[in-house]
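Complex 412.
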Amino acid sequence: MSQKLVFRLAFLLSLLVEFSTAQNKKFVCSYSPSKAAPIGYQPEFIPLEVCPYVIFKAFSFPSVVGRQMLFNDNDKLAFSRLVSSVRKRSNTVRVVASIDGSARDFTTTSSAIVRRKAFVQAAITLLLELDADAIELNWQSPGNSGVGSGDGLDRITMVQLLQDLRQAVNAASKSIQNRQRELWFRGSLHPNVIETAYNLLDVCELTDHVTLDPNTADSLENAHAPLRGTPQVLPVQIPIITQLFGNSIEPGTGFNTTTQRWIDAGCAPKKLLLGIGLHGVRKAYSPGIRSFLGDRVGFMTADTAYLEHRELCTLIKEEGWSYAWDEYGGMPYVTRALQNGQTERISYEDLDSLRLKMDMVTQKRFGGIYVDFVHSDDIYGRCGQAYLMIAYLSSRVRSIPSDIGFAIEWIQ
Ligand SMILES: *[C@@H]1O[C@H](CO)[C@@H](O)[C@H](O)[C@H]1NC(C)=O
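Predicted structure with 2-acetamido-2-deoxy-beta-D-glucopyranose bound:
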């Protein structure tokens, strides 16, 4: 073989390696020490062979001390425990430090130069001192759309904060060779928030990944994490409206529509990671209270509780539940009558609803998914195979052809 050919082959091979690592779809598990500790679930239990990325949920917003901002010591301790457990077992698994913050926290911090600087400095200590591979901002309910509880200027100051963070994260990546650090951002799937709170294009451009939070969906739906919204039948027939839309309106609240809005705004699908919550939402409500829009008043004001899959999989096996499938949402739910005349309803995920969501992830060519939380799954195998849902989701993610393979297939 000529030397030239060898060089060429080596070059092609290195490209191939680069493509195969760059194009893999991501499977991300989240871990919450405050939820995991009460059930005795240690960082050592996280199945790293299926979780190449772990998100730590979460650091509370750092508090202001003089001109500095400091993270809570307990959060740092819990994070260090996770990082050392992961590093002991693997040198490829990456750990993402998520930072929670209310709309108020982030608005005040992002709107003043001095505060932005202090926040960026604190965030960078998570990379350089606590050895995180990435930081994620969980800016909860930005904007002032009525759903968001922030400020109308959030969409501008958010970009400024992300610019500052981007610069600092790039600098941190350069400080240690071959140690790429990343900046992630949690995005909302509420139509009103998407509409008003984000400069979607810049948010995508400045971050490595946007994680789309399923818990931000518009809760009008029967299904709590719906694929499609339930069409709303118009209470009064107004001819011009009926002519335009028919006598029902597709509300655009389902994930198929809300995730598409991030893509249509110019966000590269491979940057988007769809969140999948391994929990159900339980509501107890009084049937029969009707609003002018239908029978949803009782439902909306209902007591709402989260039930992790681990708990609900045994609960819904009890007597008395009737099972139904929400055709639009693409999710199952069960209902039963309570002693006090109320109805109890649990909307949840099963392998069928997860299959539909993964079909969408594949079809839209997202960068992958994140799962809330690794310990919400049936970790002890009380309802069948342990970690059944995580195993299913992981196998689906691994079976998605890489973007480069997809492109070749598409050209042919
Ligand atoms: C989701 O929307 C796309 C168009 O954006 C459509 O082709 C597809 O059939 C929809 N999927 C579902 C499950 O409704």
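Residues 154-175 form the longest helix (22 residues).
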